[in-house]
Structure formats: structure tokens, C-alpha cells
Inverse folding.
């Protein structure tokens, strides 16, 4: 068959296309088979790696579990051992307690035996006593019959006669006693009336009393009054308890008044309060610190005052104790007169008199300066200030003429030298000049001292302070060994003793204070 070239060309092209397709298809299948094999191998590797990781994790978990189990087992065994030890200790304690109980039981048996024996002995004694009582009763009946036969009176008649005589005698004694009580009541009423009048007159002399028993402290502003009082009054209560003074906070602007019959105590309180106001920190702890510091400073001031007095008079070789005692006279008054000023005045007058007589002026001045030294401690010791002062001077090596001058300046002992007479004359001159002395203040101070001494005489009292011009006595007692009942009984006993031993106008309040403190230091 003859085909045209075009057909042959077309046929060739078609045949080539078919052959190319077949070849391409085969190549694609081969490529896909290769990819499938590769993916399969990778999947198998991933699966193998996962299985290995799982096995490794399983082994690790097994190891951790075994370790934890071993640890728990060790802890359990340790707890078991501790419980065993504790059980052994408990068993030992129980055995010890059983032994102690056995010993106590044996002791109780012994005590019961002793008690039983004592009961038997007491029973025998009781039987003997009853027998004796029966014999005494019979003897009493026999004696009564014999007395009735002798006196020819029955028992009832004798009792009636005796009662009649007793009644007559008692009536007489009661009448006498009533008369004594009535007279005593009149005398006490007169004394009380005189005391009330004296107090009224003393209150009228406001200027002198204020100068003698109060100190005025200036404050920067009235706001400071509230700080001095403190919350619920704790600051002012602490201050008054520690110093024994009475702080008066009234409407007077920028002023606080300190009241106390004891001038040393009042001076310490004044110095402490002024320092607290300047410092600004006012609370119980700071108050206590400042009071302690003020006490030291005032005592130092007393020593310096004594040295100044000695230098003024021009005497030498005097004991330090006498210097301190002499300096404390600066805060002591007698009949309204400052004792140190009075002593210096007596020393100068005695020196002038000695000069006129041509005898030792220094010795006369020495005797005059020391003549009232007993007034520094006469509140603490029994006896007159002259005898007390002479004893003090003797103990510190003063000359016999000096000692006699001190003891005799109020004619309690006989003067043995011209110096004693000079001191007595100089003392009279100093005391008798116009306005030198006032009796009312000395009696007032003595009454307040007696108030404090009465309170201090009771057991368990640590401190006692007379305040409010003697209208109140505050008593600080030890916190141990006292309770509310004891405090109430103590207040009652002090009040009754004050009524018995003192004479005073109005009434006196007795306040018992018990304070417990706990102190610890942080290191």
C-alpha cells in the first residue's frame, strides 16, 4: 500500500508519543516505588527508636521505683527502731513508777501502823481522862456539900450573893470608867479644836507656807501639762510614787507646783521634772532614769555646799562625812529658819564673841558651825538633835570642847568650857532676831514625819510618803507576800495607829500601792 509521506510522518509521531508515554509512565512508577521504600524504611526506624526510648524509660522508671521503695523501707525500719527505743524507755519509766509506788505503798503501810498505834494511845489517854473527870466530878460534889454544910448556904444562895457583890463593884467601876472616858473625850475635843484652829491660821499664811513646802516649775506651754500627767495619769503617778512628792497641775498658766514637806525630796523632784521637760521624753522608764540621775546630782550639790560652808567659816581638817551632813542642812528648816544659814550665822557670831574674849576664834566658829548638825539626821534617829549631833561629832574625831558645845547648846547637858557658853549665846542671838523663826512650820513638818514613820513601822512596807499637806499617806508595799486582803488589812491597821498616836485636823487618807515589774535585757 502506498502511504503518503504526511501520513507516515503522523504515524511516526503518534508511535513516538505512545512510546514516550509508556517510557514516562514506567519511570514514574519506578520513582514512586523508590519513595515508598524510603518512607517505609524511615517509618521503621522511627518505630524502632520509639521502642528503644520506651524501653529505656521503662528501665529508668523501674530503677527509680526500686530506689524509692528502698528509701521508704529504710525510713520505715528507722521509725520501727525509734518506736522500739521509745517503748523500751516507756517500759523503764513504768517499771520505775511501779517501784516508786511500791515504796510509797510500803511507807503508807508504815504510817498507817504508826497512826493506828497513836490512835490506840490516844484512846487510852481519853479513857484515863474520862476516869479523872468522873473522879473530879465526884470530888466537886463532895466539896460542894462540905461548903454548904460549913457556910450554911446552898449553892444557889452563894451564887446569888456573889453576883450581887460583883454587880455592886462593877457598877462602881463602870461609873468611874464612864467619867474617865467623858473627861478624855473633852480633852481630845479641846486638842482637836486647837489643831483645827492652828491649821486654819497656818493656811492663812499662804506666802510663807508656799515658800517652805512647795517648789514652782515653769513649763514652756500648757500642752506640757498633759504630757506630765500621761495617759490615764501613769506618768504623774510614777513620778509621785518614786519621789514621794505631790505634783499639783492646776489652771495656773505655764506652771506646775511640787509640794512636799521634805526639802531634799522636793529638790530632787524639781531637778528631775525640769530635766524631763527639757528632754521632752516623758514616760515611766525615762522618769525613773532621770530621778536616779537627779538624786546623784543633788547629793553632789550637798557635798559642794558643805565644802563652801567650811571655806566661808575658815575651818580645816574636818571629816568628809561631816562635810556631807553639813551640806544637807541647806535643805533643812527649823521653825521656818534655814538651818545651814543659821549655822553659818552662829559660827560668825561665835567667832566675834571669841575675839572679844581673846580665845581661839577658829575653834569657836567650828563649834558654832557644827552645833545643829544633828538636825540633818534627827528625823532618822531617836533623841534630840543636840545629843545626836554630839554623837556624830564624837564618832568623827572632833575635840571634846566641840562635842560638849554641840550637846549643851540647849542645856540638855552641863557646859564644860567657855566655847559651849559662847555657842549657846550665839544660837540664842541668831534664833531670837525678829522674823528668824516660826513655830507652826516645824510642828507641821514633825507631824508629816510622824505620819511616814508610823506607816514604815509595819512589816512589808518598802516606802511611805506623806503628801497633800499631810492629808494623805502613800505606802508602797512589796508585791510578793501581799494580796488584796492583806493590803486592805494593812491600810486599816495604819489608819487606826494614826488615830491613836497623832493629833491632826480633818482626816488622813491611807493609800496602799503594790507594783510588780518584769525586767529583761536583750543581748
Amino acid at each position: 500500500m502506498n502511504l503518503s509521506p504526511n501520513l507516515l510522518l503522523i504515524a511516526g509521531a503518534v508511535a513516538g508519543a505512545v512510546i514516550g508515554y509508556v517510557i514516562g509512565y514506567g519511570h514514574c512508577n519506578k520513582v514512586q516505588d523508590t519513595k515508598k521504600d524510603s518512607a517505609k524504611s524511615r517509618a521503621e526506624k522511627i518505630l524502632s527508636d520509639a521502642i528503644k526510648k520506651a524501653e529505656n524509660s521503662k528501665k529508668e522508671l523501674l530503677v527509680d521505683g526500686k530506689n524509692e521503695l528502698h528509701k521508704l523501707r529504710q525510713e520505715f525500719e528507722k521509725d520501727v527502731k525509734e518506736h522500739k527505743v521509745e517503748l523500751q524507755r516507756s517500759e523503764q519509766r513504768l517499771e520505775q513508777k511501779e517501784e516508786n509506788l511500791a515504796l510509797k505503798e510500803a511507807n503508807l503501810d508504815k504510817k498507817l501502823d504508826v497512826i493506828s498505834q497513836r490512835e490506840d494511845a490516844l484512846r487510852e489517854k481519853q479513857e484515863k481522862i474520862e476516869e479523872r473527870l468522873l473522879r473530879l466530878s465526884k470530888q466537886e460534889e463532895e466539896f460542894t456539900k462540905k461548903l454548904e454544910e460549913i457556910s450554911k448556904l446552898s449553892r444557889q444562895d452563894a451564887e446569888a450573893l456573889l453576883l450581887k457583890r460583883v454587880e455592886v463593884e462593877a457598877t462602881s467601876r463602870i461609873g468611874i470608867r464612864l467619867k474617865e472616858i467623858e473627861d478624855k473625850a473633852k480633852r481630845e475635843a479641846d486638842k482637836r479644836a486647837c489643831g483645827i484652829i492652828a491649821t486654819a491660821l497656818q493656811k492663812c499664811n499662804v506666802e510663807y507656807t508656799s515658800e517652805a513646802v512647795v517648789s514652782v516649775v515653769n513649763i514652756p506651754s500648757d500642752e506640757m501639762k498633759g504630757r506630765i500627767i500621761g495617759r490615764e495619769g501613769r506618768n504623774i503617778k510614777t513620778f509621785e510614787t518614786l519621789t514621794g512628792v505631790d505634783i499639783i497641775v492646776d489652771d495656773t498658766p505655764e506652771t506646775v507646783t511640787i509640794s512636799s514637806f521634805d526639802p531634799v525630796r522636793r529638790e530632787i523632784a524639781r531637778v528631775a521634772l525640769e530635766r524631763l521637760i527639757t528632754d521632752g521624753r516623758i514616760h515611766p522608764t525615762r522618769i525613773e532614769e532621770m530621778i536616779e540621775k537627779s538624786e546623784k546630782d543633788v547629793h553632789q550639790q550637798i557635798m559642794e555646799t558643805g565644802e563652801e560652808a567650811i571655806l566661808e567659816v575658815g575651818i580645816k581638817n574636818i571629816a568628809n562625812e561631816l562635810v556631807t551632813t553639813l551640806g544637807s542642812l541647806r535643805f533643812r528648816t527649823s521653825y521656818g529658819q534655814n538651818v545651814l544659814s543659821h549655822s553659818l550665822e552662829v559660827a560668825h557670831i561665835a567667832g566675834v564673841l571669841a575675839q572679844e574674849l581673846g580665845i581661839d576664834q577658829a575653834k569657836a566658829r567650828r563649834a558654832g558651825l557644827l552645833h545643829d548638825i544633828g538636825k540633818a539626821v534627827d528625823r532618822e534617829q531617836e533623841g534630840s538633835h543636840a545629843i545626836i549631833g554630839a554623837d556624830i561629832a564624837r564618832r568623827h574625831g572632833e575635840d571634846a570642847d566641840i562635842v560638849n558645845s554641840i550637846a549643851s547648846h540647849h542645856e540638855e547637858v552641863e557646859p564644860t568650857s567657855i566655847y559651849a557658853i559662847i555657842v549657846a549665846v550665839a544660837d540664842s542671838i541668831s534664833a531670837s532676831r525678829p522674823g528668824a523663826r516660826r513655830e507652826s512650820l516645824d510642828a507641821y513638818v514633825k507631824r508629816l514625819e510622824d505620819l511616814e514613820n508610823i506607816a514604815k513601822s509595819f512589816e512589808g512596807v518598802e516606802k511611805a510618803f506623806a503628801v497633800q499637806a499631810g492629808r494623805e499617806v502613800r505606802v508602797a508595799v512589796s508585791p510578793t507576800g501581799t494580796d488584796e486582803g492583806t493590803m486592805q488589812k494593812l491600810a486599816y491597821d495604819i489608819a487606826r495607829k494614826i488615830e491613836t498616836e497623832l493629833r491632826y485636823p480633818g482626816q488622813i487618807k491611807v493609800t496602799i500601792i503594790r507594783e510588780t515589774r518584769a525586767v529583761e535585757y536583750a543581748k
